[in-house]
Amino acid sequence: MKFYSIKDKSHKVSFKQAIINGLAPNFGLYFPEEIPQYSKEFFDGIKNMTLPQLAEHVLYPYVSEDINKETLKTICEDVFSFEIPLVEVEKGIYSLELFHGPTLAFKDVGARFLAKSLQYLNKDAKIRVLVATSGDTGSAVANGFLGVEGTDVVVLYPKGKVSELQRKQFTTLGQNIIPIAIDGTFDDCQRLVKQAFADTEMKAAQNLTSANSINIARWIPQSVYYYWAVAQAKKISKTKKIIISVPSGNLGNITSGMLGKATGLPVDRFIAVSNKNDVVPKYIESGEYNPITTIQTIANAMDVGDPNNFPRLLELYNNDHALIKTEVSGAAYSDQQIRDIIRKCKAKTGYILDPHGATGYGSLKDLGETEAIGIFLETAHPGKFVEEVEATLDEKIELPEKLQEFAKRTISTHELSANFDDFMKFLKIN
Ligand SMILES: *Cc1c(COP(=O)(O)O)cnc(C)c1O
Q: What are 157's strand-pairing partners?
């Protein structure tokens, strides 16, 4: 299978080239030339598959030109090596816990898949990964690539806007991980990364690639979550409708689920949930897309005012807004509402939500669809946002062991302005 650029359909490349390029020319996003159609037997049998087996089956058509079955199996066994439980929070509402990986957020899977595929496919040249982060991406990518030979990772994050515990997960690693605190917003970080890619000389000289969710090796493997979710839901009921609510920022996660649906996966409805950065819910409602300057919120991994996977959403639905509206709902929550949701859920069910997952749970409650299986993606462990969650609940929560280990380490980071020339100079000397 080849991947074309949404900006220019005549530009087509292999899986290998697409993951090395990251972005196509003119900021085009890669998209699979054909959407695989899996058999009825596959869908009937998914309940009985293990997570790595499911991943291997789902991902093989996308990578088969460059990665053979045996290698893909090894990669999937490594990448999908942790649990993804579907936990009943209350009647009809389930949490798909995507936070049992090394950095306790859902981005671990995509980051690790990208690292392992690059390691396998790009043995000859040293490759430099650039990544902009508001928290979770940086930690997932840095930990996914830590110690991977032939690579280094430059992580740009907005100074003062990422919690200490989150920073500790990518500024304490050393080795091939180079963190930079940028004096600006997350959008500034994302712009610097995009500009660096647009500088063809620099891109070629340093063999730059992206690890943001635009990279297909991060994007596509996330769709496995949705097959897994449906498989678990089918064990609960064979016939009930399935609604999946996704706390969204750059729309990488939810569009990977929509890609799954396009292959035949039975999901009845998606909910795209935002915080105050509600450009997507507004688009779903009105058909008008008006990007905004990012607003800072307590669900900061969703603080995106111009989601970079938006073109993939349009591509998946053929630019048909009416169709999008019939299959996708939008919802958005303020910080105050998120705190209320966390408190109410804890009081009613005992379940502790993180601020991102809270938007998902809240949207299912508000949809009020009692006959369906409602699944929200719990995208991070509440312990990653310990200050916020403890202040909201007015009680101590227990930190998982993996986080306690990060908390003990010492931060070491570079600092730069949001100026592009400064960033270019930095890349040349580091
Ligand atoms: C990245 C992230 C999101 C948003 O995911 P997108 O793929 O950017 O839409 C939501 N919650 C958490 C915890 C995240 O880390």
A: 181
Nearest protein Cα to ligand 1, atom 2: 301
Pocket mutation for ligand 1, best pick of 356, 361, 389, 403 (most atoms within 8 Å of C-beta) = 356
d(CA 239, ligand 1 centre) in Å: 30
The secondary structure of residue 288, as a DSSP letter, is: -
pTM greater than 0.90: yes
| Residue 414 belongs to some domain of the structure | no
CATH of the domain at 261: 3.40.50.1100
pLDDT tens digits along 358-392: 999 999 999 999 899 999 999 999 999 999 999 99
Q: What is the greatest pairwise CA distance in the chain? A: 59
pLDDT digits (tens, 9 = 90+) for 328-351: 999 999 999 999 999 999 999 999
Domain hosting 336: range is 83-105+219-399
Place of tokens 């390691």: 119
Count of alpha carbons within 13 Å of 187, Cβ hemisphere only? 12
Task: Tell me whether residue 139 is in a domain.
Answer: no
- Measured between alpha carbons, how far is residue 99 from residues 5, 140, 305 in Å? 32, 11, 25
Residue range 290-310: average pLDDT?
93
